[in-house]
Amino acid sequence: MTCCAYCGRRATTKIVSNPEDVCFEHALEFWTGLLTYARDRSDSSVKHEGSCAFRSGEELNASERFPMRLAS
Questions:
Q1: Residue pLDDT, tens place only, 7-59
Q2: Full DSSP string of the chain
Q3: Of 6, 21, 31, 45, which sees the most CB atoms within 10 A?
């Protein structure tokens, strides 16, 4: 039986950290913290303003979706 590296209880899962064997509570704390960090970092990125480059409500044909250069 492996014990949680942080509290000594039975380790029931692995996280992408060192040590990796942890109990459910510490795994939940790890993933919640990681997702919160990622969300907070994404808020500080460039804001998308304006409209989308694609025409709304219209289906693009194959040549518009996948433009290719023809070999000369």
A1: 999 999 999 999 999 999 999 999 999 999 999 888 665 565 655 565 555 55
A2: -PBPTTT-SBP-EE-SSSS-EE-HHHHHHHHHHHHHHHHHHHHTS----S--SSPTT-PPPHHHHS--PPP-
A3: 21
